[in-house]
């Protein structure tokens, strides 16, 4: 296997070639601010789900309106993450962080006051845009604040624990807030937290590395092709929940998306300051990390989605209890992140990624056979803990690989690319697997004569979708096999990065 240089940004050098003084160690407040911001965006991906029945009653939402309350956020997030990552590089990480956080917080306030479905979907879309700006800046600030690989590894462990637990915690928080204070508070809860994080972040965060270049380096042609291209592609796949894959409503936006993304590649090859330097994909560690994020995002998002449906539809749990049932998944993510943070210092990252993938695969396969009359304690809890433990273990090495060999000036776009891969994988994979579940369920459900037969038909669709999700996780393990050796520990401190935000040639 080839050796890939380390991810850490090198220190600026004087004209004589000597490294300047190392930056001082960041305060604990920096890590707290970055983890709190990441937790906010992770929570918001799921906190609204449990509140949807209450929102539907309050605003008279149609089924399509309910879907777009969730998908509006996801669509904007997936479409704008690359732009958000590049903004962190050209405007400055702190400035971009505060911009994204402010937009996210204001949209949360507006969403809680939404008088109708259109206003709520618009607010959720702006929330997604704020998260797309905020999330890459959060990760690039953390990466730049901890140039020492050992300190960075520990900081990434804490950060990934916050990120990985957010989705499961969102289901619990959404149930509690909806039942006690009303659905508006699943959005308003972000406001006091966002204001506090903004105030502290403005004080403790600092710009690191080179002086930002400003909007003149933003590559607007690239932004105008990749954003709409990803949005059209995701819209087409999400729409298959209500239309067929062969309908014009699916094929036309899919064709537009593919065309725009092809144009984006042409634009980036000629751009002086590309939004996405194509040379990133020459770094095998970066390419593999994004492939893993794409596949794991699809498989694990589908697992959580169909598990939520199984708990409420088949086992008959009310929304609040279904949310609480995800708590062990949060704990599994936290434990896996802590374990991965410790093991990456002594184990080969490839070995750790392989072990993490096997645990996730075992958990998803186990869930794919859960019986109709199953028990949460014996048939759901053990595989959920197993799968989430594996997912948590894999976060730190995947994040490490995603910036391996990337210079400080390209950290924003590298982290934006990783988040884009994860979100696109999650959205597109879930839509595709939902189609699998629907197609498997349709004929048995139509022929079912009893309630038990209908439950068996629905569960059969979930089983098929979860089995397909396990196949995606298996492919992710295959990507691990071609991952190059990653540089970690003390030896990484002197390795030079090989790519920055400069144009790819």
UniProtKB/TrEMBL annotation:
Q: Which residues cross the membrane?
A: 28-52, 64-84, 96-114, 126-146, 158-177, 183-206, 218-238, 250-267, 287-308, 320-339, 351-372, 384-412, 424-442, 462-483
How the protein sits in the membrane? Multi-pass membrane protein
Where is this protein chiefly located? membrane
Against Gene3D superfamilies, the record matches this protein to: MFS general substrate transporter like domains, Multidrug resistance protein D
Quick check: keyword Transport in the entry? yes
Q: Which Pfam families match?
A: MFS_1
**Record localization:** Cell membrane
Where are the compositionally biased (Low complexity) regions?
12-22
Give the region (Disordered) as residue ranges.
1-22
Concerning PANTHER family, the annotation shows:
BLR6921 PROTEIN, MAJOR FACILITATOR SUPERFAMILY MULTIDRUG TRANSPORTER MFSC
* Protein's recorded name: DHA2 family efflux MFS transporter permease subunit
């Amino acid at each position: 296997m080839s050796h890939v240089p380390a991810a850490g940004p090198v220190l600026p050098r004087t004209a004589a070639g000597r490294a300047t003084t190392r930056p001082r160690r960041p305060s604990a407040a920096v890590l707290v601010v970055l983890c709190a911001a990441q937790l906010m965006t992770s929570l918001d991906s799921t906190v609204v789900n449990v509140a949807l029945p209450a929102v539907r009653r309050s605003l008279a939402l149609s089924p399509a309106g309910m879907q777009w309350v969730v998908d509006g956020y996801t669509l904007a997030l997936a479409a704008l993450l690359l732009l958000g990552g590049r903004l962190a590089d050209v405007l400055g990480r702190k400035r971009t962080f505060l911009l994204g956080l402010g937009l996210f917080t204001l949209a949360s306030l507006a969403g809680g006051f939404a008088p109708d479905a259109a206003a709520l979907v618009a607010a959720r879309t702006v929330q997604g845009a704020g998260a797309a700006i905020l999330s890459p800046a959060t990760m690039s600030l953390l990466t730049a604040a901890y140039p020492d690989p050992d300190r960075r590894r520990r900081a990434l462990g804490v950060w990934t624990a916050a990120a990985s637990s957010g989705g499961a915690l969102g289901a619990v928080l959404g149930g509690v807030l909806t039942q006690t204070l009303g659905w508006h508070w699943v959005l308003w809860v972000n406001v006091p937290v966002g204001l506090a994080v903004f105030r502290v972040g403005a004080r403790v965060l600092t710009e690191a590395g080179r002086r930002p270049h400003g909007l003149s380096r933003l590559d607007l042609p690239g932004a105008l092709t990749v954003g709409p291209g990803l949005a059209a592609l995701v819209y087409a796949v999400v729409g298959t929940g209500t239309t067929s894959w062969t309908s014009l409503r699916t094929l036309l936006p899919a064709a537009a998306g593919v065309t725009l993304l092809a144009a984006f590649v042409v634009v980036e090859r000629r751009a002086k300051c590309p939004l996405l330097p194509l040379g990133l994909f020459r770094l095998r560690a970066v390419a593999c990390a994004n492939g893993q994020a794409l596949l794991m995002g699809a498989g694990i998002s589908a697992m959580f989605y169909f598990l939520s449906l199984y708990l409420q539809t088949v086992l008959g749990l009310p929304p609040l209890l279904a949310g609480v049932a995800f708590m062990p998944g949060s704990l599994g993510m936290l434990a896996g992140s802590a374990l991965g943070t410790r093991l990456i210092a002594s184990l080969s990252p490839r070995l750790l990624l392989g072990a993490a993938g096997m645990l996730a695969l075992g958990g998803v396969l186990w869930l794919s056979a859960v019986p109709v009359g199953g028990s949460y304690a014996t048939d759901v809890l053990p595989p959920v803990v197993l799968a989430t433990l594996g997912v948590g273990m894999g976060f730190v090495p995947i994040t490490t690989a995603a910036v391996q060999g990337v210079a400080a000036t390209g950290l924003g776009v590298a982290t934006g690319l990783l988040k884009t891969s994860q979100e696109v994988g999650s959205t597109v994979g879930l839509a595709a697997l939902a189609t699998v579940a629907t197609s498997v369920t349709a004929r048995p459900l139509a022929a079912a004569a009893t309630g038990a037969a209908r439950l068996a038909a629905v569960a059969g669709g979930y089983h098929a979708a979860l089995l397909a999700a396990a196949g995606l996780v298996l492919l992710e393990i295959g990507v691990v096999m071609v991952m190059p050796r990653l540089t970690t520990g003390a030896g990484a401190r002197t390795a030079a990065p090989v790519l920055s935000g400069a144009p790819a040639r």
